[in-house]
Amino acid sequence: MVTKELIEYIKTCREQNISNEQIKLTLKEQSWTDEDINTGLSQISQPTEVIQSAQSTETQKPKKKFLIPVIIIIGTLVVGGGIFAYFHFFGSGWQVFRNTEYGFEVEYPNDWYAFEDMGNRIIATYPPEEHKEYFGTEDYKKLGDNLGIIIISRETKSQEEKLNSIKERYAKIINGIDKSAKIDEIKTEEITIGKEGGYKIYFNYRESKIMYENGYHVIYLLSDKNRTGVIQFEGDFSGNNEQIYTDYAEKFGEILSTFEFLD
Question: Which letter, b or e, does each residue of 151-168 get, where b requires 16 or more Cβ atoms within 10 Å of its Cβ?
């Protein structure tokens, strides 16, 4: 999605005579898609100085057309981390999801939605009113061609107990006992988010009889702050375009990387 912050960043780079190649490289490192980058670049015309520099061997001095505060800001951004610092300085475009009951917070994209449904906390790529009306029904395609949903819950179990129950649940699908979808393999990794250790369970599925036929499922398990239970972040990403819904899954990882316990 092309945001105001993206356009402002490209505009600032163009005014500083930074090449398109360098702009693209920096943005890709921050997980912007080629489509969004190219759209943003096409909306901001390239300065005359850049075009002329490619046609002339003469060294040109940059024009002094920026106010001192802007120069200071840009210099700080370059030294302090480029685009990462830029978007945090001018506004990252992400919102804070704070759960006082479970005692944590995460950030999520401003074009996603956070809400509650049946006691679970949810972060999704579509609004809560549409979730209530279409999710899990025959009209689910009205939610969009590609879906991303993260369901957050907590149980008074250890990480290992929850991990084993998840493996048992999906083993039934792998073995053909549960015919709601087809899964070839489930992968499990030990992870660390911040200072918190946990597990990541993930797999691709196909021929699902519940929502879209094909998708990617990933679950993160973290102990709660008091170590009396486990917080589960269960993400389901599916649709007609594998690249789009796998991009959603990657964004899920970015969301979890911002996890912090509340003081």
Answer: bbebeebebeebbeebee
84 & 127 share domain: no
> What is the 3-class SS of 145-175, one letter each residue?
CEEEEEEEEEECCCHHHHHHHHHHHHHHHHC
**Residue 202 in tokens:** 């993930």
Residue ending a domain, among 90, 106, 121, is: 90
Residue 214 near residue 243, CB atoms below 8 Å:
no
Written as tens digits, the pLDDT of the chain (263 aa) is: 677 777 777 887 777 678 787 788 777 767 678 777 888 788 776 553 333 443 443 444 444 444 445 444 545 444 444 444 444 434 457 999 999 999 999 999 999 999 998 888 999 999 999 999 999 899 999 999 999 999 999 999 999 999 999 999 999 999 999 999 999 999 999 999 988 999 999 999 999 998 899 999 999 999 999 899 999 999 999 999 999 999 999 999 999 999 999 98
Domain final position from 90, 121, 151: 90
Total domain count, the chain: 2
User: Based on C-alpha coordinates, what's the Rg of the chain?
Assistant: 22
Same domain, 149 and 223: yes
14 is in which domain, residue-wise? 4-90
- Sign for the pseudo-dihedral over CA of 167, 173, 176, 182: negative
Stated pTM of the model: 0.66
**Are 80 and 101 in the same domain?**
no
Residue 73 and residue 116 in one domain:
no
